[in-house]
Amino acid sequence: MICLAGLPGAEVGYLCDVTRHHDDVWLVATGPLTNVAESLTAEPALVNDLARVVSMGGALLASGNVEANPEAEWNFHADPRAVDIVLRSGAPITLVPLDATNSVPITSYLLDALAGHHVTPAADTVLELLQANPYLVEPGNFFWDPLAAVLATDGSPATFEERQVVVLEGSPDVDGELVMSSSGVGVRAAMEADALAFETEFLNTLNGDEAISRTRPEPDLTITLTADGCSQIPDSFPPGTIDVEVRNPLKAGGAAILATTTRNHSIVELAAFVARVDPAGDARPPKWVVSEAWTGAPPGGSSLAPWDLAPGTHGVVCVVEGVAVVLAGTIEVAG
Known about the structure:
Immunoglobulin-like; 27% helix; single chain; five-stranded mixed beta sheet; 2 domains; 30% strand; Inosine-uridine Nucleoside N-ribohydrolase, Chain A; alpha/beta
């Protein structure tokens, strides 16, 4: 049996009752671990009835998403003491940290796939939610909780590693930070997710069938970010739309940007400007630099986005936050 925690109404008495009266309970925690910790504190023997605790929380090799502590993830930062109690409870724990969720952004490709096939009330609701809130499909939003739910039922969309971790607490600048340590508690951690496999499982589950077999196209161009910029790119493409994937194995976020210049300026001038940019500064491009498209990629993740290529010469600028800004090359698009 699978039980969700972290939702309104998932109080201590409810969790205890569910766990006590069912065998082989998988508890999926999609928020701070407060109520899970309180349940295990109230009835420590409940740990014997838990087959698995799947927690969406933490950041191991990836950067965090909390302003007070950039190394911490929000759910764990909200109640680090609860995290420590659950870790030390003896329950078998699977973490779904930002390392994995960074691989499953909410994309326009998924929205298009859902718009083309929504045959259940659940699918209708998710479609209406995304269409009514277009900001959710912008870079920076991910399927944090749905990935945890999918991995609780089917682990194939992710790769897992055994890690020993401790959680820090005591002040806002360290609260919730996960540290790997030989003296820590052993957990099973999802380190990378397969976006295509996740999206297919997610949409098929929403629709109650197996009608959706693919949610996004194969990339026409793949760019891999590196510590000093990014991989080489082809020097020519025909005009039209291409799907560009940016892979980011680094701990810092990054992006690939398609840029051109106004009529009175050249790509050589764009290259000279990029060479002067301090990646740790706040250098804004001059008005004659025109940003045409971009694909951002979170730390340890990847993203896919469409680029519209018009005839002419375009520069591809790779940015790694605080590390590098380089002109990776130019693309000639035939007229």
